[in-house]
Amino acid sequence: MHPVINSYAQFKEQIDPYYGAPQSIYSDHFTWREENQTQIGYKLEVLPLLPGTYATLQGGHGAVLHESMTKLPNTHVLMVLMRDGFHEGSPGGSVELSENGRAVLDYPLTSYLTDGMKHAFETMTEIQFAAGAVATRIGHRDSAWHSSLSEAKEAIGRLPIELGKASISSAHVMGGCAMGEDETQCVTDSEGRFRHLENVSIFDGSLFPTSLGANPQLSIFGFSRKFATRLAEDL
Ligand SMILES: Cc1cc2nc3c(=O)[nH]c(=O)nc-3n(C[C@H](O)[C@H](O)[C@H](O)COP(=O)(O)OP(=O)(O)OC[C@H]3O[C@@H](n4cnc5c(N)ncnc54)[C@H](O)[C@@H]3O)c2cc1C
Fold first, then answer.
1. pTM to 2 decimals?
2. Are residues 225 and 153 in the same domain?
């Protein structure tokens, strides 16, 4: 998957982050960092910020949440997508069945990931101040708003990246039924046909053999259309 973290910024100018197509702005400058070997790489993207999304991401309640929401028109958010699975420090997650048949999810937070997240928090904060932000706050339960880059960087260095503290999410679940020609690695062939049962095809995000490094929806639409058309012709 792509673990995701965010950084928020307040601007004097009104941004209206709930209008337009803000996700059309991104940067791959830090995406391919495997040669670095100590920190995971990440893609930078600008998220749309709808009221419900912002209230959830900010957390809190009462007067604190009210104040955050009042400032929403002047609020900007950057996020990063981390491309896991390409380094032994980010092996990805697992899904196993427990004894009672329930799915058990696990996703290790390694130092390769958390060091990359610290780097990403610094990058996002730096970009936001360079763009004229008057204050920034990282997506972390214990983070305050900071009005200078040096203050913000000091806080990023100090705050622990731990579960329940840093706000880490992912909307891009990929893999599980990898497609490919290598039968020892891939449970489906390169057109999504399941190898171990007759007449079962899989056309969804589980076919990805690795995480993607980009938002996956268009790729899923693309291969699903291609494979479904071919299957229909065969049938
Ligand atoms: C908040 C959010 C924002 C996102 N933003 C973007 C974006 O901007 N760009 C982008 O490219 N991607 C985005 N994604 C990711 C994208 O939506 C997913 O990668 C994509 O939808 C996955 O497609 P899929 O077909 O694999 O699974 P899904 O779209 O999850 O489809 C699975 C379907 O199976 C159904 N289902 C589940 N269990 C059963 C069952 N037992 N019986 C019958 N049906 C069942 C579900 O109801 C669902 O309709 C976002 C995801 C989220 C959650």
1. 0.92
2. no
Pairing of strands 4-10, 103-106: unpaired
pLDDT > 70 fraction of the chain, expressed in percent and rounded: 98
Residue 33 Cβ < 6 Å to ligand 1: no
Q: Is residue 34 over pLDDT 90?
A: no
Ligand 1 mutation pick, 217, 221, 223, max ligand atoms within 8 A of CB? 217
By the 8 A CB rule, do 120 and 80 touch? yes
Q: Are residues 23 and 107 in the same domain?
A: yes
- State yes or no: pLDDT of 7 exceeds 70: yes
| Domain-located, residue 16 | yes
List, in order, residues 6 or more apart from 154 with CB less than 8 Å away: none
Residues 200 and 96 in one domain: no
**What are 197's two structure tokens?**
């049962």
The answer as to whether 119 is a domain residue is yes
Q: Are 122 and 7 in contact (CB under 8 A)?
A: no
Domain count, the chain: 2
For residue 97, the SS3 value is: strand
Residues in the chain: 235
Give the span between the Cα atoms of 101 and 90, in whole angstroms: 27
Q: How many CB atoms lie within 10 A of CB 21?
A: 8
* Range(s) of the domain holding residue 135: 4-158
Q: Are residues 122 and 149 in the same domain?
A: yes
Residue 213, ligand 1, Cβ within 6 A: no
